[in-house]
Design goal:
mainly alpha; two-stranded parallel sheet; 2 strands; Linoleoyl-CoA desaturase; EC 1.14.19.3; oxidoreductase; acyl-CoA 6-desaturase activity; Fatty_acid_desaturase
Length: 378
């Protein structure tokens, strides 16, 4: 059965969209004007802790043949890799810390501990995803090109196995991210420029060789007779980091109450700032938790705030979240949030459900500005 689970946006007038844009722009301007020493101290502290954890994990793995050292070293290295990818790498490459004018923590210079080349990620994520969030046919993050996560996507028998290959995607998520900017659907249909694809593949191959050389050759060799156990520990730490990143990101985009959009080119071209803001609100979900949990998610547990303000420092999202929620209540808009268990359960339930045909969609009358919006199937 298909139902409308949230309040509709039909009640919003053009004046409402303009007011929403003004209020959200005011929040952005206020935070931007207040950035300063405490924010710089925050990111420097996180980087120091991340590097200390990585050094500690690597040191423990020098004795990786001993089970306690292997467990402790693997766990510590896993936390270090999560921090580097989520709270540091992802956010630095978004330009959240460019205002500091520090060349060591700048979106143009940072290369993260991941097989995905930074430049390709910044195009597929910063530009494509954050511009066309949840727009079918424009945002490649809707199902990551291999998953059916909404009834708007045509069903094909290949989706029957998607719970299995979603599990594989979680384990090797960095490789899925690495090929994301290739736009494999265009490669398959011959719409991609072969030379551009080859150049991107060369860059991916170079980055993979660099990462493998570090994690699967250099550090295992440094551990001497513990080569194989250190190799296993590095592999395990990467899997843990990948599964965690996949879980957090999917919880921010695919829980059952998050919407997708069927929007034409003309509507996108004419989309106002207020309409873009509302699309971010409807197409995002938060995960509730404490400060340590938020840190370990890279503050992507505040996915709504991140989609609204992707280049504001992540340490400010918790501060502005109550104000965003109040704005949603004021304009009768949904503010999707819930504990991690509920969000991840809802996401996997959706992936399992849409592995099969259906459900049928109930047409809704067109309405501006989100004329292509469809209700989410229960």
């Amino acid at each position: 059965m298909t139902t409308e689970p949230h309040p509709t946006v039909a009640h919003l007038t053009p004046a409402d969209y303009e007011a929403i844009a003004r209020e959200l722009d005011a929040i952005r301007d206020e935070i931007t004007a207040d950035l300063g020493e405490r924010d710089a101290a925050y990111i420097h502290k996180v980087i120091r802790w991340q590097r200390a954890l990585e050094v500690t994990g690597r040191a423990l793995l020098m004795a990786s043949s001993l089970p306690p050292a292997w467990i402790a070293g693997t766990a510590t290295l896993s936390v270090a890799k999560i921090l580097e990818n989520m709270e540091i790498g992802h956010n630095v490459m978004h330009g959240q810390w460019d205002w500091m004018r520090d060349p060591k923590i700048h979106s143009t210079t940072w290369e993260w501990d991941n097989v995905s080349p930074a430049e390709q990620w910044k195009h597929s994520h910063n530009f494509v995803h954050h511009t066309f969030t949840n727009v079918i046919g424009k945002d490649n993050d809707v199902g990551y090109g291999i998953l059916r996560v909404t009834p708007e996507q045509p069903w094909h028998p290949v989706y029957l196995a998607q719970p299995l290959y979603n599990a594989l995607l979680a384990m090797f998520f960095e490789y899925g991210v690495a090929v994301h900017d290739l736009e494999l659907d265009k490669v398959r249909t011959g719409k991609a420029d072969p030379e551009v694809t080859k150049e991107k593949l060369r860059a991916i191959g170079k980055k993979i060789r660099r990462q493998w050389g570090k994690d699967y050759l250099a550090f295992p060799l440094l551990s001497g007779p513990q080569f194989l156990t250190t190799l296993g520990a590095d592999f395990t730490a990467n899997i843990i980091r990948n599964v965690w990143a996949h879980s957090v990101i999917f919880c921010g985009h695919f829980p059952g109450d998050v919407e997708v959009f069927e929007v034409g080119e003309e509507q996108l071209d004419g989309e106002t700032r207020g309409e873009w803001y509302v699309r971010q609100l409807l197409g995002s979900a938060n995960i509730s938790g404490g400060s340590l949990f938020h840190l370990m998610t890279g503050n992507l547990s505040h996915q709504i705030e991140h989609h609204l303000f992707p280049d504001l420092p992540s340490n400010r999202y918790a501060e502005i979240a109550p104000r965003i929620r109040e704005l949603c209540e004021k304009y009768r808009l949904p503010y999707h949030t819930g504990p991690f268990g509920r969000q991840i359960g809802s996401t996997w339930k959706k992936i399992a459900r849409y592995a099969f045909p259906g459900p049928k969609r109930v047409p809704v009358p067109p309405r501006a500005p989100l004329a292509g919006r469809r209700p989410v199937a229960a």
